[in-house]
Amino acid sequence: MASEKALRISGGFTRSVVSGNKGLSVTQRVSNADLMTMYRVYNHRYFGGKLPRNAKVSFHPHEKMDDAIGWSFNQAWGDDKTEIWISDRLRYTTCCAMMILLHEQIHLALPKFCEHCKHFDAWKRRLFDDGALDMIW
Fold it and tell me: In sequence order, what are the residues at sequence separation of 6 or more whose Cβ sits closer than 8 angstroms to the Cβ of residue 111?
């Protein structure tokens, strides 16, 4: 399990995503390093550490994302990189950025042909049941 120190994202929290007794401020600025930390925490906690360790997670200029707020690439799908992009419009909306991160992590957990299929929906329900959204929604 990730340490409390690893969860001290950009200053003061109110509740922790991992322990359930501390968490992210709703309007604090989220950095790319914060996204990477949360990717690792979520990967460990909700995906059993099975998502690619070499994934790069970062904010990306919204105008280069075809109006999407999240995008994922995976070398296992034949892409040239394993990355998650989150629209830079979400940099100051911590809860939204974390929900989109979880959404894109589900994509990485599934084969490319399963965009928003029944398996994707099952992952969403599982994350909800496991409390992944308790502190961010």
Answer: 77
**Other C-beta atoms lying within 10 Å of the C-beta of residue 57:** 22
Q: In one letter, which amino acid is 14?
A: T
CB neighbourhood size of 30 (10 A): 25
- Residue 59 sits at φ, ψ, to 5 deg, of -75, 145
- Work out the end-to-end distance of the chain between its first and last CA atoms, rounded to an integer number of angstroms: 22
Q: Which residue has the tokens 């099975």?
A: 50
**Residue-wise pLDDT tens for the chain (137 aa)?**
343 333 444 333 333 343 333 445 555 788 999 999 999 999 999 999 999 998 999 999 999 998 899 999 988 888 888 999 999 999 988 889 999 999 999 999 998 778 888 999 999 999 999 999 887 77
Let me know how long the chain is. 137
Identify the CA nearest to 27 among candidates 95, 118, 103: 95
